[in-house]
């Protein structure tokens, strides 16, 4: 199994264990999920996202940048 598959499998297990949300409260809807699924990033994007999932300072910085972008 490659590292990306292993990471996604681990993330899936955590999400299902910690955030089951059986009543789908707050879900964005199928159209939003389909749009996200259609926008596949390149290898660099995949690596950055993998890092952010494991680095609190980078996660915080990304959140700050996204907040500034929305202003």
Descriptive account of the structure:
The protein has one domain. The chain is mostly helical. 70% of the residues lie in helices and 0% in strands. The model has no long low-confidence stretch (mean pLDDT 74).
Helices, strands, pairings?
Layout: H1 3-18, H2 30-38, H3 43-52, H4 56-70
Radius of gyration: 14 Å
- Report the principal-axis shape: extended
Number of E-state strands: 0
Our estimate of the beta-strand percent is: under 5%
- The chain-level structural class is mainly alpha
- Count of domain modules: 1
Largest sheet: none
What is the ordering of alpha helices and beta strands? HHHH
Q: Please tally the helical runs, counting DSSP H or I stretches of 4 or more residues.
A: 4
Overall pLDDT confidence: 74
What's the end-to-end separation, in Å? 42 Å
What is the quaternary state of this protein? single chain
Low-confidence stretches: none
Helix share of residues? over 70%
Question: Can you give me a brief rundown of this structure?
Answer:
The chain is built from four helices and no strands. With 71 residues, it is an all-alpha fold. The protein has one domain.
Features:
70% helix
């Amino acid at each position: 199994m490659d590292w990306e598959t292993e990471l996604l499998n681990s993330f899936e297990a955590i999400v299902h264990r910690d955030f089951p949300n059986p009543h789908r409260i707050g879900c964005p809807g199928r159209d939003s999920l389909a749009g996200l699924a259609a926008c596949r990033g390149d290898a660099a994007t995949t690596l950055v996202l993998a890092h952010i999932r494991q680095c609190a300072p980078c996660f915080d910085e990304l959140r700050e940048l996204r907040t500034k972008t929305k202003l």
